[in-house]
Amino acid sequence: MKERKRQIRNRLHDSNSRLPDDLSLLLRPWLFNLRSNPRNDYLRKQCFSKFVSSDTAPADIRIERAVAKWLATEEKNRETNLRIEHTIEDYNILPHISWREFVLFGRALTERILGAMPTWDSLTGIFSGGATTSRPRTASHPAQKYIGKADITEDALPLFESLLDDLPVWLQLRGDSEIRIVPGNIMFTVPKTTDIDRCACKEPDLNMFIQKGLGSSIRKSLRREGIDLNDQTINQRLARQGSIDGSLATLDLSSASDSITSGLVELFLPDIWFSILNQVRSPVTEIDGELHRNEMFSSMGNGFTFELESLLFYVLARTTAYFRGVSGVISVYGDDIIVPTGLAHDLISVLSYFGFSVNTSKSFWEGPFRESCGGHYYNGHDITPFYVKAPVTDLVSLIHLGNQVRQWAGLESYQILDPDCYEIWAKLKSLVPPTLWGGRDLSFKGCLVTPDLPSRRLLPVTTKDIDNLDGGYVLWLNATMDRTEPTDAVKTAFRRTDTGRYRVKPASRTSTWLLSPFFYEEVSNIPI
């Protein structure tokens, strides 16, 4: 008995302890048996669309397909660059609208948004926690990147050296640390769907630092225009509105960031903006040791790609709307584009000319469905599905799955959860130790949300604080340099890393359950 208790206790303490089976398989028959309605039908279709396991396409196959798709996009980009270069001025990109008129208006709009050139301060960026060409993710804490070795492309080096004159503390701390000249970035892939990965690139360290600053400057400029890249809910609200009255279309593009060509950026950006962005991007990508010269301007992983694509899609949409005489809301968030429904076909035509492919399975301008920025709506009702992306074989992922099912069971404007979901949720609950019932936050993976009074919760075990030393000081200076008034402290002197293990901690015994939806079967268990 003591040995059995010890085994259970050890399992609770380690999120990587394997449960006997892939418990996500319980969902498949439940999904099949759900009564048919637009919300349930959509969940059935989407729930396992991103699932990756040993039974789906092997990693090497998914990677091979991703790289092949990326290279095919690059071939298309080459054709786009040639098409842009050789388009004559009186070519009609829209009916009765010449190429020259369209480009001049779009270029003027871009300059009005950005200004003629970036400010010097906008070149000072910040480091992220991602891997770079010189550092794996395990050694990529932002503070570590301020000291020691660093990579940069040859074209970007003069800019960085000029920046250091304005950052004397960093200059002093870097001392004689090695700066290695590299040709460009390095490709890697991450899981995307069951049968293909997504390509991204690790940028040179110091290129990324400047890229992040320029990206932040573009982001601020767009916000002054009414495009807030810090708030996805804007697009979600507009998508919901479009699903109600059909006034707005939601467009999604395939390989959007990888289809931003050098020719497009040079065509629409002010000369100095293009020159500086071009100076700090990666002109080549290393793929399995081979160098590929890029037709695209910047890839996923570049510090300004998201902001740049948002800017260009906004400019193309706004310019198209101007010449077609269409008024109404235009909103962008990366490649999530929302425009008046009457503009959709003309904009698709313009986007196609500039090398972009509209993903017809994720773009909507007819019917009662719209999707944008992770929000999915049918006649104004939120039918956003949850996704099971990997086998559920440990306690933390089991709790997360249970909370996902419970969240899905919530019906708009109702206090009672969907009874169709109770049976599967109860099965998942029975597999979770009762001490970990009583959660109140559906996004928290350390405690299952139930009407019980909370007792225990799982918290990740992290390493002891590691001193960031001099790098932490420079990170603090950089993170606080723009503050104009007192704010909360920015902790940069130390860092902690997750171990993949969890520990049991007492939970607060307070209950706010009556404010939360519940299953009818739980009524007798709700604490008063």
Structural overview:
The protein is an alpha+beta fold. It has 2 domains: 154 residues, no CATH class; 317 residues, no CATH class. It is built from 16 helices and 21 strands. The strands form 8 sheets. Strands 6-5-8-9 form a 4-stranded mixed beta sheet. The longest helix has 28 residues. About 1% of the residues have low confidence.
Summarize this entry quickly.
The protein has 528 residues and is of the alpha+beta class.
Q: Could you tell me the radius of gyration in angstroms?
A: 26 Å
* Spatial ordering of strands, largest sheet: 6-5-8-9
End-to-end C-alpha gap: 36 Å
The number of helical elements comes to 16
Shape: globular
The whole-number mean of residue pLDDT values reads 88
Kindly estimate the percentage of residues that lie in beta strands according to DSSP.
Answer: 15-25%
Helical residue percent band: 25-40%
**Low-pLDDT stretches:** 7-13
How many β strands by DSSP? Answer: 21
Biggest β-sheet description:
4 strands, mixed
Number of domains: 2
Q: Class by helix and strand content?
A: alpha+beta
